[in-house]
Design a protein that fits this description.
33% helix; six-stranded parallel β-sheet; single chain; Rossmann fold; 278 residues
C-alpha cells in the first residue's frame, strides 16, 4: 500500500511513523522545505508522477480563508485519475458543529459553525464530499500529544487558566487519531464521517488542574474569560461550548482508545518525558 500525505504536519508525521515498513510506502509534502514542497499557492511540481501509484491519500492542509481546499484547487483532476486510489482521508475539525451550549453532538448533528474557522472547514468538507472520490471525513477535537501539550507551559509558569463557567470541549491524543486513521484505511467506507475525540469532554481549566496535580505544583490562578488582557484570538477558542460523541466512530471502526481521557494521556506524556523518550 502506498500513502501520500498532502501536509506532513503533526498528525500525518505520527501516522507515517506508525506504518508497517513491510506493508506501506509513504511520501508527503511540506510547506517550504524538503523534497516535495506544496504551499497551497501553486501546484505540486510533477504531481502526476508522485501520485500515480498512490492507494491512500491523506489531506491535512487547512482550507484557505474562503473555504477553498488547496489540494482540490490544484490537483482535482490528477487525483481523480489515480488508478488504484481506494481511500482519501480528510482531516477536518469539530468546529464545524458550532456552539451547542454544552450539549452533545454526533455525526448526525447538523453542522452550524459559529466561527470563520468552522465555516471554512465545513465548506472544504462539502467540496471533498462532492468530488466523487473515496473520501472519509475525520472531525478532530483538540489535538495533544508529545511536543504538543501543556506540561511545559505549566512547568515554566506560562500557562493561563481561563475560566468560563459550564464550558467544555473535546480533545484527543495524537496516537488515537493515528489508530482511527489506520482502522479506516484498512477498511475503507467512502462517504463516512467520524468524530475523533476521547471519552471525556471537559474544560481546559480541569485539564490544567490535573497537570498541576501530577507535577505536584499548586493550581494556577484563575483568569475569568472577560479579563481584558485575554486576546481576542485566545478568547475565540471559548466561543463554542459542546461535548462531541465518539460512539459512531468506535462502533464503525472498532476503534479502541489508547487514552480514553486526558488523564491517561497526560500521565503517559509525563512518564515518557521523565524517561527522556522525547
Amino acid at each position: 500500500m502506498n500513502l501520500f500525505c498532502f501536509g506532513l504536519g503533526y498528525c500525518a508525521q505520527h501516522l507515517v511513523n506508525a506504518l508497517s515498513t513491510s506493508s506501506w510506502q509513504h511520501s508527503g509534502t511540506r510547506r517550504s522545505s524538503g523534497k516535495l514542497v506544496f504551499n497551497g499557492q501553486s501546484p505540486l511540481e510533477n504531481a502526476q508522477l508522485h501520485l500515480e501509484d498512490v492507494t491512500h491519500l491523506l489531506v491535512s492542509i487547512p482550507p484557505n480563508e474562503t473555504g477553498q481546499d488547496p489540494v482540490l484547487l490544484h490537483h482535482t483532476e490528477i487525483i481523480k485519475n489515480i488508478p488504484n486510489l481506494k481511500w482519501v482521508g480528510y482531516l477536518s475539525a469539530t468546529s464545524v458543529y458550532g456552539d451547542h451550549n454544552g450539549g452533545w453532538v454526533d455525526e448526525n448533528t447538523r453542522p452550524m459553525p459559529s466561527s470563520s474557522r468552522g465555516e471554512n472547514r465545513l465548506e472544504a468538507e462539502l467540496k471533498w464530499k462532492s468530488s466523487n472520490l473515496p473520501v472519509h471525513i475525520f472531525r478532530l477535537g483538540g489535538i495533544y500529544g508529545p511536543d504538543r501539550n501543556q506540561i511545559i507551559a505549566v512547568q515554566n509558569n506560562s500557562a493561563k487558566k481561563i475560566i468560563k463557567p459550564g464550558h467544555a470541549f473535546s480533545r484527543v491524543h495524537v496516537d488515537d487519531i493515528v489508530g482511527a486513521l489506520l482502522q479506516s484505511a484498512k477498511n475503507p467506507a467512502p462517504g463516512a464521517i467520524y468524530n475523533i475525540v476521547d471519552d471525556h469532554p471537559t474544560s481546559a481549566a480541569e485539564v490544567l488542574d490535573y497537570i498541576c496535580h501530577i507535577l505536584k505544583k499548586p493550581p494556577i490562578k484563575d483568569t475569568p474569560i472577560d479579563d481584558p488582557y485575554i486576546s481576542p484570538a485566545l478568547k475565540s477558542f471559548y466561543g463554542d461550548n459542546k461535548c462531541v460523541s465518539n460512539s459512531q466512530t468506535k462502533r464503525e471502526l472498532d476503534w479502541q482508545l489508547k487514552f480514553p481521557s486526558y488523564r491517561e494521556g497526560y500521565q503517559d506524556i509525563l512518564s515518557k518525558l521523565n524517561q527522556g523518550l522525547f
